[in-house]
Amino acid sequence: MKPFRAPARLAALQRHPQLAGHLVSPAIRLGLAALALLALAACASVSPPGEPPAGVAGPHAAGAVAAGATAAAAAPRAPGGSAGGVNAATATATAPADAPSTAAPGARALLPEPRPVAVPPPGEGPGVDTLDDLPPPPRDLWDRIKAGRGIPELHDNWVEQREAYYSARPDYVARMVSRGGRYLFHIVEEVEKRGLPTELALLPFIESAFNPQAISSAQAAGMWQFIPSTGKYFDLKQNLFRDDRRSVVASTQAALDYLTRLHGMFKDWHLALAAYNWGEGNVQRAIERNRRAGLPTDYANLRMPRETRDYVPKLQAIENILADPARYGLSVASLPNEAVFRSVAIERDIDVALAARLAGIGVDEFKALNPQMNKPVILAAGTPVILLPHDNALLFAARLGQHDGPLASWTAWTAPSTMKVSEAAERVGMTEAALREANRIPPRMQVRAGSTLLVARAAHKETDVPEHIADNAMLALAPDAPARRRVQVKARSGDTLASFARRHRVSAEEVAHWNRLGPQARLQAGQTLVVMTVAAPAAAPRRTAAAPARRVAAAPAARASAPAPAARTKPRSQASARAPAPQTRVAQR
């Protein structure tokens, strides 16, 4: 028998508590059976003089004990590692269940109802006979990922090409590993909780090189690269103050939810990964196209874009390299198999800079763990939990309790109407330049009604931003240009786009755009064209000297003689001709 090594066995028990019933060697089990016999003998010694031992009757007692010991040595172990449903490490040897009972009336039962005990021979039955037979604990995260792989491997030229690509770029691989070291333990934990293949934890290497601030040309964002619509489907908030597509925890949960759904749809991990990259609809159509053509419908035989064709081979190449970097001439840093950060609850709005200072870390490190923040303030109503390095979380909690003063120097303000940035700045007590910078408002733009702006928070303000704003705040801008009105004008004989545009003081490109015409379009005489002209500002009423009393009296009579509704429908020349002389003179002044 192998020597007993207590530390290794205890560590194995901690890793695999479900095997505790199987981790007793045969010799120990036989020893426990012998102890049970001694306990039975001790019980017999307390019986009154002249009576048989309690629980074992008359002359059959010795035979019963012997039969129990024989059964314990010969009976096979029941499934689950126990003997007849009793754990071999704690079972008591008694008479067989079918032995006739000869207990004397009134005998005291000090033992439980008789049950058979079975001690299997070494090497038989399910489970592990010794702790030394358990696999060693993972040395680091790479070992842990390697042990949990479950996606069928690819072996083709695509994989070899990607292996060569990464092998030729050791600095790039090192940067990816360095960034991923912050997040990989959490991702592996979440993957294992769901019973998914651990290779999926490596997918951010392919999607974003583990850069949570990565954004693609299709506006996909975060480590897991969610486009806005898919992120919204998986309840990843995208608003003025945060983008949960970049959140370490929220985006990981959404990505694993999505991958689980795709695998349930296709029953194949290669197809599920292709759908994650290309979209499930595209993969379904490619499968149906092959099915109609009588072709195989697996990943290798579908017609798909090069990026998707290369997607699974990239993951396979990264998996191969991290499992054995020396084979590819690379040196990969070991990542400890332990948590890097922990969640900390906050109850009040707090500035990012202050949160980092209370935690004793730099702002850059804070943002690396909380990359979803869009603004320099964290709104507790929308982000009630932040991530901090494991060793700094308690420091943050202690310092937060001792902090005396405001926690946030920023808050939110909603524009009641469409207004210029200068007007909004005046209302919130900021300069226009500061307001533009805080909200990234470009020149010649104004703020639309209902927009939320980040503004300076007054020192005396006690209330935090409410949840409906923290979760839904948006900033909508409009061009700060003169209002235009739409008019229709007929082209003259011989007009071109250029001559027509010059006559109406607009550009030929604008005329073509408004009328959906080509740049070389020919105009026909009498053709109706749309022109967006600058609307004239409303004329302010002019102050005039007081008119003689007789003129003032004449004005109401004149107004009564020309009904207002009729005047609005007449051409301006007719309306002016009918106006009384006194009013005309006043207007000319």
Characteristics:
disordered C terminus, 26 helices, 589 residues, two-stranded antiparallel ribbon, mainly alpha, 8% strand, single chain
Average pLDDT, all residues: 78
Low-pLDDT residue intervals, each spanning 5 or more residues: 1-30, 43-115, 544-589
Strand content: 5-15%
Structural class: mainly alpha
Looking at how many chains there are and whether they match, the oligomeric state comes to single chain
Taking all Cα atoms into account, the compactness measure Rg is 41 Å
Q: Given the C-alpha coordinates, what overall shape results?
A: flat
Helix content: 40-55%
Q: Report on the biggest sheet.
A: 2 strands, antiparallel
Tell me the number of strands.
Answer: 12
Strand order in the largest sheet: 1-2
Tally of individual helices: 26
First and last CA, distance: 119 Å
Descriptive overview:
Helix 11 (269-278) crosses helix 12 and helix 15 packs across helix 16 (363-369). This protein has helices at residues 6-15, 26-45, 61-74, 141-147, 157-167, 170-180, 184-193, 203-207, 228-233, 248-266, 269-278, 280-292, 306-309, 311-323, 352-359, 363-369, 393-402, 421-428, 432-439, 467-472, 497-503, 508-515, 549-561, 564-568, 572-578, 581-588; strands at 82-83, 86-87, 341-345, 350-351, 377-378, 385-389, 410-414, 445-447, 452-456, 477-479, 484-490, 528-534. The radius of gyration is 41 Å and the shape is flat. The model is unreliable at 1-30, 43-115 and 544-589 (pLDDT under 50). Strand 1 (82-83) and strand 2 (86-87) form a beta hairpin. A two-stranded antiparallel ribbon has the order 1-2. It has a two-stranded antiparallel ribbon with strand order 3-6. Strands 4-5 form a two-stranded antiparallel ribbon. Helices cover 42% and strands 8% of the residues. The N and C termini lie far apart (119 Å). The protein has 589 residues and is mostly helical.
